[in-house]
Batch of 2 targets.
Target 1
Amino acid sequence: MIDTNANVLLIYTGGTIGMVENTESGALEPFNFSHLRSNMPEIKRLNFNVETYLFDPPIDSSDVSISIWQQMVKVIETNYLKYDGFVILHGTDTMAYTASALSFMLENLNKPVILTGSQLPIGKMRTDGKENLITALEIAADKDETGRPIVPELCIYMQKLLMRGNRTTKVNADHFSAFNSPNYPYLAEAGLDIRYNKTAILRQNEDRPVCFNYELDRYMVVLKLFPGISREVVRAHLTIPGLRGVVLETYGSGNSPINPWFMEMIRDAVDRGIVVVNVTQCLYGSVVMHRYENGQRLERVGVIGGYDITTEAALAKLMALFGKGYQPDEVKELMYQSLRGEITVRS
Ligand code: ASP
């Protein structure tokens, strides 16, 4: 039910949705928000209040950084009490990373924060941006019979689908359906109505106050395995000065080569207090390290199983936990727990 007294803050960070074509080079470049507003008279016709906050300058999301995530959190914190929900317009390229990071930076969230964008600029006839934006705004304003927000989560809305943000990954560079949530059900599907999947929606502990975590530790690396990977490459990753966390992208259900030099380097990293998290390169399914001998070896040297977490969420979770000042043993413990619905923990 749309609350006609609702106030939604629309935060424009950049991305294709507001870009225009450079007449000389033909490349799409960020443009200012007045372009978006003039192309979206529909916003004025919504039956609730929408106010806007603009990032200046707007960015291509390939330029997103920890400091830009911190700015996004700051805008939400500053305006948290004043608004019922937030919509962040963001480029699709790194939207899944931003969704994962913000999900850990915003703790005990009790209002919707919806990221959306588009694959075609809003001024193009065939743009996907209008529907994405209008529906995201409606979801941000939606309340249940008791007046509580229906989706008090950090989500991505694209192409009729509402997804938990830290479960998403960008799967298509061309199609309007750019995102998928391979290991978790959609939170809502928009057809004639918006149909919410209420049992899938996370309600964090409502007795606890919302908390804004700004510190992220940047000393992380993603090491993607491939057949023929050399010891120099593995060593270069694992000996980065100050390194604290590694997202190890393995094969299938969490397998890696077991040759002695590889296992020795991983063991050495773990012994130096680096947290190594095993995430599968597969889009669907989960890490089960004890299934094969090759996975068991990793488990024995102290690698943490990431279950069905995405690379984006594993990275963000490590950044956030070390950023909060946890010690490696505490981080390992917490990597096994679902903090924001980012993993499916099987008992
Ligand atoms: N390069 C753009 C960005 O991520 C693509 C998009 O908006 O979809 O900012």
Target 2
Amino acid sequence: MTIIDGKHTAEKIKDEIAAEVAAMVAAGERPPHLAAILVGHDGGSETYVSNKVTACEHCGFQSSLLRFDDDITEQQLIAEIERLNNDPGVDGFIVQLPLPRHIDEQKVTEAIAPGKDVDGFHPVNVGKLSIGLPCFKSATPSGIIDLLDRYGIPTAGKHAVVLGRSNIVGKPIASLLVQKAQPGNCTVTVCHSATPNIKELCLQADIIVAALGQPGFVTADMVKPGATVIDVGTTRVPDSSRKSGYRLSGDVDFDNVAPKCSFITPVPGGVGPMTICSLMKNTLLARKRSH
Ligand code: GUN
């Protein structure tokens, strides 16, 4: 059984990006520039955005953080997005979610120019991903594919069971796994809250991707010996022994499932660190496309 080290893999990918950026800069080119819009003061969003800024530093990117109070209007926010869409010095940008309730997230997402949408959330990028065209792939599914690739996990002809049908994980990872590509070429089953026989389907899986947000949902009796288990769950559960008062819990009962697996991702330190890497890869791609 191999525990997939997402933290180490992510560091390695960022080192590779940094080397490529250093070569660009040495050749007299401008480094990639990622901008992030942060509205309000949500603790989780603050942490995520500051991690993104740190990753930019690691990769040699320029970064800009644009902060707004949570009383910004939808119209003002969209005006800021249009300014970034038209700024040739910004290669890509993200609007950190969630947004305050008076702002329509879908409208904001669709206001971002698809060519600068390094989160890969715009319907143009989602559509391109689903038909296998080059695009900005959304961060978590792209990170999972990179882990399968770098660990040499066989996927062609394998049965992948995806638990969860969210727009940012379940649906896009199902699209990528079914694609005629390497990694890919899986037979994919997507399970959700209305699926009656999740356990039976999981028992047939060579690869399980758990993205439901239900701590410990995948138990050892649901996993075929030798399966690969990718745990996308990151639910905060109260833990008074931690300084923060919480710990991150995955969707998989790791201690009991791990001994049955050929490969498994831990939480934390599995898929999580890979997501920022995907954002860095997309930003580098945006910079290269801007020539
Ligand atoms: N909030 C939680 N995850 C993400 C993400 O990947 N991108 C953005 N923009 N907001 C998020």
